[in-house]
Design brief:
The structure is a homodimer of 197-residue chains. The first copy, chain A, is built from eleven helices and no strands. Chain A has 197 residues and is mostly helical. Chain A binds a DNA duplex (18 and 18 nucleotides) through helix 1 and helix 3.
Chain lengths: 197, 197
DNA sequence: GTCTATAAGTAGATAGAC
DNA sequence: GTCTATCTACTTATAGAC
């Protein structure tokens, strides 16, 4: 493969990533994608066999972005509380740059739940819960699941509700400030949860 | 209008409600909707001018279902804590019956944020926050916004993540049990939040 | 590698018979 | 009120020139 082909491929991937996340699978038109990527429509099929094939690679990347880094953070050599606080920071940093990511991933997962198994790999998810419970030595596995759900809820949902929250504010900068205010708030809540387990 | 026309109209609305929520606006095909409703495709356009018009009435109903009842609960003549706990119960009860509702609403709001203003009425949302802060007598308005976001996050997100959470369980009944376990957990968290304001 | 042209199928919407 | 048939536009995907 030449260098130019890799560049074109990347231009398509970048545009597809942004457009799929914005519009979902059914909402994206191949022509619009070609325009946005600055390439010819025929090239989309030359580099990726079909719309579905292109979507699959984008979706894999999206799920990885949404879950991958927090799984790593959950496995670090730190106290449980420090790891939880670390995950909060990772989430807020990632999602401030990419606020539409979660609603896209969960909508597509809801539309086609089989994709969970195919692209995500259930094992990595179990790893996340296990990393927090440390095989039951720190907290029981069932409690760890509740903890993970609460943590992800508090971190991720505000971004999914962004269009609504924005109605209470003047602009995007206000939203960012609101999120920054939540950072210590969520950490404190999670610390309290740890005490009550 | 005759009685039969009302029945047909209702059959269409019911099928559209389920299908739009399952597939989103772009994913729904009018033919599939006609099949599911047990009516002819032409009738869809006879009763509702267009797909968009049909969607609009479904979306209004969906937003109302997701926010309407909690706004009422927030305004009841009770202590702030009792109202918060009441909202948790309303959410869990509603969403156990209709788990796909939130991801649909937030996906469509994200796709077309103008719909917030058009169909929801920003005023009712402000009312919710105001009801909780009671015009600043109970808690400041900014804190009330954080409280509402935290509460809705903890109640709604687990349903949006249902396809993922289900991977940790055997069946739908297990998921319902998991949600029931969360009911006191979330209430206790919210009570703690009230103390720290 | 990139483009144009077009195939093949399907979408929403409408007209008109019954 | 309900159905069949059909129109027009647009969709993904491909074939083949350059």
């Amino acid at each position: 493969m030449g260098k130019k082909s890799e560049i074109t491929r990347q231009k398509i991937m970048d545009a597809a990533y942004r457009l799929f996340i914005e519009k979902g699978y059914d909402g994206l038109r191949m022509q619009e994608l070609a325009d946005r990527a600055g390439v010819n429509k025929g090239l989309l099929h030359h580099y990726f066999r079909s719309k579905q094939a292109l979507f699959n690679s984008i979706f894999t990347r999206s799920v990885d972005e949404l879950f991958g880094r927090i799984i790593d953070t959950a496995g670090e050599e730190k106290t449980l509380e420090a790891r939880l606080h670390g995950i909060v920071d990772v989430y807020f940093d990632t999602l401030l740059d990419n606020p539409q990511l979660p609603v896209f991933v969960f909508f597509e997962l809801n539309r086609n739940p089989q994709q969970v198994l195919a692209y995500f790999g259930l094992e990595r998810l179990r790893l996340l819960v296990n990393n927090l419970s440390a095989n039951g030595r720190e907290i029981p596995i069932r409690q760890a699941l509740h903890m993970v759900v609460s943590m992800v809820s508090l971190c991720v949902f505000p971004f999914m509700a962004r269009p609504v929250i924005l109605q209470f504010m003047k602009n995007q900068a206000d939203f960012s400030r609101f999120i920054e205010e939540r950072r210590p708030l969520v950490k404190s809540l999670l610390s309290h949860m740890l005490l009550t387990l």
